[in-house]
Model the fold of this input.
Amino acid sequence: MDKATLNLLNAADDPQESEAPKGFDYVKEIEAVERIKPELERIVGRLFVLDENVQDASFFTELSIRQSELEYMAGIGNVILTVLAIRFSAFGKLFTVWSNSTKEKVNRNLIDEVVATLQDHGYVYVDADALQESYTGSHTDFKDTTWWLRFFDYI
Done:
């Protein structure tokens, strides 16, 4: 991970709080994402689903586009994979973008435009690959985990 990304993650880290920093206004933040959602849908040309039921997590919501067809995965069965997801951390206005679909892809230029649009709205992008590195922050509950778990997963 480059130094600038590590500095960004450390700046957003909270040594006490796991799910959200003190004073985090869930309602206000969901409303902000709802206001941006139509703009992102215009860019991608598809509708996003807003997850308003995130609990016990270090992120507060996600906008996602699911694959239109079931896909069979050995050992699991039929699953609906994610074509594009934008996950919003409760910390530092961080967001990341991820996908696990093998059949449907969003053009990289459109993803770049989504990222730029969210940055224009004051959100801070973190590449999902960097988040797979070991957590080195100050919260003891996240030792021996990753930055992804710290800011973008159920805990």
About this structure: The helical segments are 3-12, 26-44, 108-120, 147-152. The CA atoms of residues 134 and 146 lie 4 Å apart. The chain has four helices and seven strands.
